[in-house]
Amino acid sequence: MSDIIKDNVGDIFENWNTIPNWLSFFRIAMIPVFSVLFIKEYYIAAFIVMIVAAVTDLLDGKIARKYNMVSNLGKMLDPVADKLSQMAIVIILIVKFWNDGIKYVLFLFIAKELVMIIGGLLLLSKGLRPGAAEIWGKVATTVFYIFMIAIIAIGGPESALAGVKAFEPIILSQTIIDIMIVISAILTFVSLFSYVPGFFRQLKEKKQADNK
Questions:
Q1: pLDDT of residue 11
Q2: Is 0.90 topped by the overall pTM?
Q3: Tell me, what's the pLDDT at 180?
């Protein structure tokens, strides 16, 4: 099985040195920076880092398509960076809301990513590659970033901008925070199920090809 995986990803680093890929590397590097800043309660600095990471997420795909910089590495690196970023944010929010029942909803995000990782490894073991993000995946990722940035920025009295007088009128209540997390979780699982038809189609086509 290792030989199949090796052959399948053998050309992954072909034409890898592109601006979009470096933006993805940068986004991954920002994950521990954001996490440390948040844990140390430098909320405004953590908020700024998160905004920068989200902007690079929007830019890398646009640059890749506009300037013909699409690469095999980029097709895998971008979703990996997304998953790592989302996992870091979710884990930090779980810690923040540990005494709140909403933490159980946050655990669903981790469960979804684990399912995606296992599915991706299964495809690789069959000599296949995980498909590109479906439209629901992009929608779920966009909503996730918007909601989580809002929660970190103005989500309660301990949020990044809570001490800034201009933002005091729009500090989110716990009810609003819970609703945002639930909506994001629902979209996350809708995106997961949107991958299912393509996943089984790839396995079916591979089986048919092997039987010929």
A1: 63
A2: no
A3: 92
Blockwise average pLDDT, block size 10, the chain, 212 residues: 51 74 89 88 85 83 80 76 83 79 82 84 75 74 86 84 86 90 89 84 82 74
Buried b (16+ CB within 10 A) or exposed e, 123-137: bbebebbbbebbebb
**Residue 182 to residue 151: CA distance in whole angstroms:** 13
Measured distance CA(55)–CA(49) in Å, rounded: 10
Exposed, middle or buried: residue 156 (CB in 10 Å: 0-12, 13-18, 19+)?
Answer: middle
- How many CA atoms does the CB half-sphere of 89 hold within 13 Å? 30
Residue 78: burial class (beta carbons within 10 Å; 0-12, 13-18, 19+): buried
Integer Cα distance of 149 and 85 in angstroms: 12
Alpha carbon distance 9, 27 (integer Å):
22
DSSP secondary-structure letter at 159?
S
Whole-number Å distance between alpha carbons of 194 and 159: 33
Tokens read off for 61: 């795909």
Contact between residue 105 and residue 185 where contact means Cβ atoms under 8 Å apart: yes
